[in-house]
Amino acid sequence: MHFDNYTTDGFFDEMFEAPGKVRPHYKVLAERFDRLSDEEFEEKRQAVDLSFLRAGVTFTVYSDNQGTERIMPFDLIPRIIPAGEWELLERGLKQRLEALNLFLHDIYHDQKILKDNVIPPSYVLSSKDFRREMVGVDVPRNIYIHICGTDLIRDDKGQYLVLEDNGRCPSGVSYVLENRAAMRRAFPNLFPAAGVRPVEHYSEDLLKMLKYISPVQDREPTVAILTPGVYNSAYFEHCFLARQMGVEIVEGRDLVVRDYKVYMRTTKGLQQVDVIYRRINDDFLDPSVFNPDSLLGVPGLLNAVRAGNIGLANAIGTGVADDKVMYYFVPRMIKYYLDQDPILPNVETYLPSEKKDYDFVINNLDKLVVKSANEAGGYGMLMGPWASKEEIAKFHDDIQKNPRNYIAQNPISLSRHPTYCGEAGFEGRHIDLRPYIICGEDIKITPGGLTRVALRKGSLVVNSSQGGGAKDTWVLYKE
């Protein structure tokens, strides 16, 4: 019924092997949706949207002059991952995060990977997020990236590829939890029948990890989430996680450093804080060291970190691993530190700063995707095959001036998924996947993640700030 006219158009489709032929792990879902009338489907869709509106499930678009607060667009058709696929993803993501944490500890201590020239030292030392202030500083449990959101895509053959690692302040996990709650209300009987693994324990795992990195273990540690405030794009998420974990949410003005320890201002006086889950980038974290104009951070916080009196998730300096140029070298990190081949490959990537790649990139900008090394959210990106001559000319000049600041990749035909498109019915839209990884006493990956969908027809950009939406992601217990 709903999918009778659906076509795969030559792309790898998550739900259909071919028109009319549903993949085995989608059969329960397809049968359930086929029993829904158009009116019933619309009722459920509107009920989910209303539940998001009432819960305040929003994000902020800074460039939008029609009002910044928006409800996250949500599509009712979930993305489903069978058990065998998920087991592969888990192994690959754990391997990747382990290597990234070893890399960060190394570059802030012995720098063996640089001395062995596995990664040219200039790339690390010239990264704007390499923090010389952290060299020689030990962090709790030697963990730098505690919360990671690694973006995955599938190509036209269905192979999973890593698009990028988000190891500073990855956002979006609140939508994972809210999406699941909304789907459970809309389809209460479907989850047991489909055999879907739960995601609701994420907040419990997050709090356990935060307590694990506390510098004090002889008492119950005080944990707080540090937010930039109500105007931040992810403020809903900061409040959501604080409420879920039962911890305080604070702004920089609520904290003060005394004798190399961090305290929270309360109605009963100062209370020591042992662990901070910070949702503020390094630049704004400590105005006495980084950006002196920042009103968001806490003066003296770095000194408390150096003294070992505060656990900070994620650690200061993790941004160097987020640098898109470092992404190019992650397979080398895995080989160097773990003596393993990557389980999940990178997208083929070119560095304009390398002589062997420079001419190719400059001469093929109309065929490549070019990304700025330190931008996020779909900004600072050239989609060559769809770009105007003016856009291409601008990137040509920018790359010539600063080749270190860019990477280039061949466009990937992202996999597609049936998505409700209003009067057009169900059409294929490109998707990616951001699983959430927590690294504490062990590495835990919430079974699922945020499936982002490019709602504009033909678009490959899935970011919510660029017109994207989200789907619930189901990981099955069985194949």
From TrEMBL:
Give the residue range of the signal peptide.
Answer: none
Record-annotated Circularly permuted ATP-grasp type domain positions: 78-454
User: Which organism encodes this protein?
Assistant: Ruficoccus amylovorans
Entry-linked PANTHER family: BLR5612 PROTEIN, SLL1039 PROTEIN
Q: List the protein's name.
A: Circularly permuted type 2 ATP-grasp protein
Q: Please, which domain of life does this record's source organism belong to?
A: Bacteria
